[in-house]
Amino acid sequence: MSTEFAVAFVMAIGTIAPAIAIGLLVSAGLTAIGRNPEAASKIQTNMILGIAFAEAIAIYALVVSLILKFV
Predict the structure, then answer these.
(1) What is the pLDDT of residues 21-64, one digit of tens each?
(2) Which pLDDT score is estimated for 1?
């Protein structure tokens, strides 16, 4: 029973934190584009890169939860 709880806890924390980070990144990126539309391509590139790094954390949490479940 404790393994299932550990898997659920890892996935809960491991997905909530990147979701919040992605929301903050997109919000800041859209605000920056609204203030300086000429720099939209540079801002968008950096925003997508930051989103990819935040999403990688969620993938790491998935890997850890699968290891906990099957090992």
Answers:
(1) 999 999 999 999 999 999 999 999 999 999 999 999 999 999 99
(2) 62
Class of 2-70 per CATH? mainly alpha
* Beta-carbon count within 10 A of 66 CB: 13
Cα–Cα distance measured from residue 28 to residue 18, given in angstroms and rounded to the nearest whole number:
15
| Domain map (residue ranges) of the chain | 2-70
The sign of the CA dihedral 54, 57, 61, 67 is positive
- 40's tokens: 């939209």
Q: How far apart are CA 62 and CA 31, in angstroms?
A: 31
Q: pTM to 2 decimals?
A: 0.81
